[in-house]
Amino acid sequence: MEKFINSYHYLIKKIYPARVNDGIDMELYKEVEKAHYKLEHASKKDESLFLNYRNTFFFFKKHINNAIKDGFGLIRNQLNDSDKSQLEATIQKLDGSLYDINELEVIVSYSNLIFSSYNLDTPLNDENLRKSSKSA
């Protein structure tokens, strides 16, 4: 999961470059990592570990979803049709019942590839500001 933390950190810094303290962002990641580890290494099936993992994963996924939506809003007019449809499909998948950490890692990595190809430094205009969502 070392690669995932780097991809996640890159995504957040790319979409929200002005954040001074990324402690909250990293705390969300650490909580999911800890819950995933406990679930994977439990000696027996424990429903409370499963529920804890799903809850922490949901909030982490929502945070990533908001970041991707915000990034999409910033560059919507710059995107080619393929990248636009890929980001729309990604957002739809994140809005669904995804709870696989490995699939989430692939989504973040692929989204980073798309975002790194475009200029996200464009200031938010009024239209983009209204469309951007609040982070979890």
Gross geometry: globular
Count the E strands.
0
> Beta-sheet strand percentage?
under 5%
Q: Biggest sheet, in brief?
A: none
The H-and-E topology, N to C, reads as HHHHHH
Q: What's the overall average pLDDT, rounded?
A: 87
Number of helices: 6
Distance between the termini: 22 Å
Structural class: mainly alpha
- Please bin the fraction of helical residues: over 70%
Radius of gyration, taken over Cα atoms and rounded to an integer in Å: 16 Å
Low-confidence stretches: none
Q: From the structure provided, what is the oligomeric state, counting identical versus distinct chains? A: single chain
Features:
6 helices, 136 residues, mainly alpha, single chain, globular, 72% helix
Provide an overview of this structure.
This protein is mainly α and 136 residues long. Helices cover 72% and strands 0% of the residues. It has 6 helices and no strands. The chain has helices spanning 2-15, 23-40, 47-75, 81-95, 101-116, 126-131. It is globular.
What's the structural blueprint in terms of helices and strands?
Elements: H1 2-15, H2 23-40, H3 47-75, H4 81-95, H5 101-116, H6 126-131
Helix pairs in contact: 1-3, 1-5, 2-3, 3-4, 3-5, 4-5
Write a compact overview of the structure shown.
With 136 residues, the chain is mainly alpha-helical. The chain contains six helices and no strands.
